[in-house]
Amino acid sequence: MSERPPKIPESVLVVIHSPALEVLLIERADRPGYWQSVTGSKDRLDEPLVQTCIREVAEETGIEIGGQAVPLSHLVDWGLRNVYEIYPVWRHRYAPGVTHNTEHVFGLRVPRDIPVRLAPREHLQYAWLPWREAADRCFSPSNAEAVLMLPRFAGQGDGGQT
Predict the structure, then answer these.
(1) H or E, element range at 82
(2) CB–CB of 51/66 below 8 Å?
(3) How far apart are CA 34 and CA 146, in angstroms?
(4) Mean pLDDT over all residues of the chain?
(5) How much is the pLDDT for 162?
(6) Which residue, 49, 47, 32, is CA-closest to 106?
(7) How far, in whole angstroms, is CA 162 from its chain's centroid?
(8) Residue 134: exposure state from Cβ atoms within 10 A (0-12, 13-18, ≥19)
(9) CA 44 from chain center: how many Å?
């Protein structure tokens, strides 16, 4: 039997944005109409959050963090933590009795013309939207709130240079 291990209830939310504060949103394949930023849980309890961000951004968008186009300095921990109740539809992925997740919020500045390659089993399409419009489209309240904070955090990392 090859049952997947339960998901770790600690995750990252990565608000990917251009220098002009356009936000990259992706539509979930398992829930059409549900738009979000990149999210994902730790693979291991000891996995550093930055590694979770790097892995999830690459898996979900094909964007590689740490190269010339997107230096690691463009990934910024906003120091925000959200603890929320896991939607009942997704609780089966976690250990029995786990009902809450801790989400760590990061921002990632990328060139607006960076190629995006979605994982087709996870996402249907992507869109670049002005930050206010992106916040309105997010299905998750914590994701929408993070996008609304983008102007406050956008100047961090690499001195605000592109």
Answers:
(1) strand 75-85
(2) no
(3) 16
(4) 93
(5) 36
(6) 49
(7) 21
(8) buried
(9) 18
